[in-house]
Amino acid sequence: MTEDVKLQITEKLARFIVDSSYDKMPPQAIETAKRALLDCLGVSFTGVVTHEGNLITEFVRELGGNPAASVIGGGFRTSAPLAALVNGILAHAEDFDDWTFATLGHPTVPMLPAILAAAELSKASGREVIEAYIIGFETQCATVRGVSPTHYMRGWHATGTIGTMGAATAAARLLKLDVQQTRMALGIAASQACGLRQNFGTMTKPFHPGNAARSGVMAAMLAKRGFTAHPDIMEERFGFFNVYKGNGQGELEQVTEGLGKDYVIINTGVTFKLYPSCGETHSTIDLVLELAKQHNITPLDVESAEVAVHESTSSVAFYTEPKTGLQGKFSLEYCMARALLDGWASLEHFTDEKVNEPGVQELIKKMGRRIDDSVPPIAGASVTIRLTDGREFSQKADAPKGSPQSPPTYEELVSKYRDCALLVLSPKDVERSLQLMENLEELTELTELMAIVIKPK
């Protein structure tokens, strides 16, 4: 790699951020962006009624702040960075938001809160919001190429680290920063990127995208005021790529390859969740549900069940004996048991009380896992259920339902949005907010939408 290549990466990213145009974006990218924004806004309402959602909302209410941006379901406005912090935690509280291989994590949840806050500051239009989302998505994907594959496996939560760069990108675009200011925003954001996977199964996991959203908005706001950072933060010796890939083999030459031409949001796509749990549990849930339905299996019929997964999957869903609802979201064993007991896995199933039910705890003892690196990483699974009568049934999946290989219909996403939003909003407000999101590209600004989503439970 030549020094010239190294010195151009941050600048190329900044020029892509500044020069990209909605009119040149493929219709499929725009449609996928709209679906992702709708889905993430919907799951934000689920966070409003959680304990951690209440904690962070009241914490920020006490802090106060210039009332510039709306807190979803909070009934008040605060500073743009603080609103992004709250809304990011709300949107990830139930782990119900989308994810993608392309960013090694959840691409939308660090960006939507930053986008909403920055859009309120700048009075951005719906087209500008979609534009900022796509630019932020592609920037996240480019950033991953510089640190993959070691970044995530070393324990960094990419939704927090890579997501910070996406949030800063989207906010910089909406605040109309020029190329030099955008380079500064990326530099400020890079020094705030953080998030450790050991905190999975605790309230701090949703803090990661909330903090990423806050950091991104603050980075863009500071850069707009003239705050400085290193202009080549991504590629220099002690910059983002070299620090965050550690001893890995991130391909710096490929970071900006195809940027703005080959859209990853189309080529790799987004996986929408059917269940409010870690994405690495979803293929397992799918398989258990399918086997139980095909063979009329009840919990009393089960002698044992085993899921074979790649080591990377097991390292994420690492709780084998969960004791809290949050741990249950990251437990293959609990998700298998719950799917057998209830024929689904829904929001109500991931509470402390549900996880500690005697019946499910007894069934968990019959559940097991096996590491098999021939199974596709992250999304793949192979489930075997052995019955008390000696019969045995097995099935495999390379990816879960909701993925680009098996995408949900638009009607299914709308149904999910309604179910989530009704936890906070009136039926009338749910339908109006849905209508506004469906016609997002036609909105001149987000005033009416934010006036609806701010309403308290």
What's a concise summary of this model?
Helices cover 52% and strands 7% of the residues. The chain has helices at residues 3-19, 27-48, 51-63, 80-92, 111-122, 126-145, 150-153, 158-174, 179-190, 204-225, 240-245, 264-267, 282-295, 311-316, 325-328, 332-342, 352-355, 358-364, 410-421, 427-438, 447-453, and strands at 69-70, 77-78, 302-309, 367-371, 381-387, 392-397.
Structure description:
By secondary structure, the chain is an alpha+beta fold. The protein folds into two domains: 3-273 and 415-453, 2-methylcitrate dehydratase PrpD (Orthogonal Bundle); 279-397, 60s Ribosomal Protein L30, Chain: A, CATH 3.30.1330. The chain has 21 helices and six strands. The strands form two sheets. Strands 4-3-5-6 form a four-stranded mixed β-sheet. α1 crosses α9. It is globular.
| Helix content range | 40-55%
Low-confidence stretches: 1-6
Percent range for β-strand residues:
5-15%
The CATH topology of the largest domain: 2-methylcitrate dehydratase PrpD
CATH class term of the largest domain: Mainly Alpha
- At the fourth level of CATH, the homologous superfamily of the largest domain is 2-methylcitrate dehydratase PrpD
Adjacency order of strands in the biggest sheet: 4-3-5-6
| Main β-sheet description | 4 strands, mixed
Query: Whole-number average pLDDT?
Result: 96
Shape: globular
State the secondary-structure class. Answer: alpha+beta
For the record, the CATH architecture of the largest domain stands as: Orthogonal Bundle
* Number of helical elements: 21
**What order do the SSEs take from the amino end to the carboxyl end, as H and E?**
HHHEEHHHHHHHHHHEHHHHHEEEHHH
Number of domains: 2
Span from first to last CA? 55 Å
Strand elements, count: 6
Radius of gyration: 22 Å
